[in-house]
Design goal:
Layout: E1 8-13, E2 21-27, H1 29-40, H2 49-56, H3 69-83
Length: 92
């Protein structure tokens, strides 16, 4: 029997961009690879299956649509808070 993962992963980048963008997305084993690399790099990972489904419809390098700004802002603010970063100047 072959192992099949139902994991999905979406990577979002913000900072230099005026709007967050999708920088990576995958499912299955490739999603697990993205998550593993994010952990190695010290990237915080939020689990929100509904948001992943919505963002999964976007293309790579696509800007986050306005109707998802609040959901993405909550996750980004959480990540900034965990790292002790002020999002206005990107320094701890």
């Amino acid at each position: 029997m072959r192992y099949k993962s139902k994991k999905k992963a979406i990577a979002i980048e913000y900072g230099e961009n005026p709007v967050p963008i999708i920088t990576a997305k995958a499912d299955g084993i490739n999603a697990e690879s993205i998550i593993a690399e994010a952990r190695r790099q010290g990237v915080y990972i939020a689990e929100d299956p509904q948001l992943v489904e919505l963002l999964g419809d976007l293309d790579l390098d696509a800007e986050i649509p306005e109707h998802l700004y609040v959901a993405v802002a909550v996750i980004l603010s959480w990540a900034y808070w965990l790292k002790g970063i002020n999002p206005t100047d990107n320094t701890p």
